[in-house]
Specification:
Belongs to the barstar family. This is Barstar (barnase inhibitor) domain-containing protein. InterPro entries: Barstar (IPR000468), Barstar-like_sf (IPR035905). The protein is an alpha/beta fold. A four-stranded parallel sheet has the order 1-4-3-2, sandwiched between helices. It is globular and about 40 Å long. The termini are far apart.
Length: 152
């Protein structure tokens, strides 16, 4: 399995942003490399704490996870030290993030990219964590990807 993960690891970069119609393809690909697939639905009125709670549960963070970015990186460090295998987390209905509190989508893209890169750099071939934003983006809607480092 680890060879499969290593051979299919993508280059450092942001989480995938895909249309809802591509979810089955991503699931099939993840299963093909023997990765665990976690499909989460972004709530109708998302906020940072709620989305982090969902993501933390998906990655097996401790029960008392503080739902802020500092706590996120602390818990991610624990996962990097102990976990093995692959996990692909798909955030479905991600278009809802565009109507959420200012900069939430950009913060998530930034921090999830940083998280993927930390895992890739620290866990080597032992662990793979990937994130994908799946949504009904529409032709007229643009998906803003933040420039620079959003606030924690």
């Amino acid at each position: 399995m680890l060879r499969s993960l290593s051979a299919n690891r993508r280059l450092p970069g942001p989480p995938y942003v895909i249309g809802s119609e591509s979810v089955d393809y991503v699931v099939s690909f993840a299963r093909g490399i023997q990765a665990r697939v976690v499909r989460l639905e972004v709530p109708p009125e998302p906020d940072r704490r709620g989305v982090l709670r969902l993501l933390g549960q998906a990655l097996g963070f401790a029960e008392g996870f503080g739902t802020n970015w500092d706590a996120w990186y602390d818990c991610l460090g624990d996962v990097i030290e102990t976990a093995t295998g692959g996990t692909v987390v798909i955030l479905e209905r991600s278009e809802r993030l565009l109507d959420s509190p200012p900069a939430l989508f950009a913060q998530l893209v930034y921090h999830l990219q940083t998280s993927q890169d930390l895992v890739a750099g620290s866990a080597r071939d032992r662990l793979l964590i990937e994130f994908a934003f799946a949504g009904l983006w529409g032709d007229a809607q643009t998906v803003p990807i933040g420039h620079g480092s959003p606030r924690r």
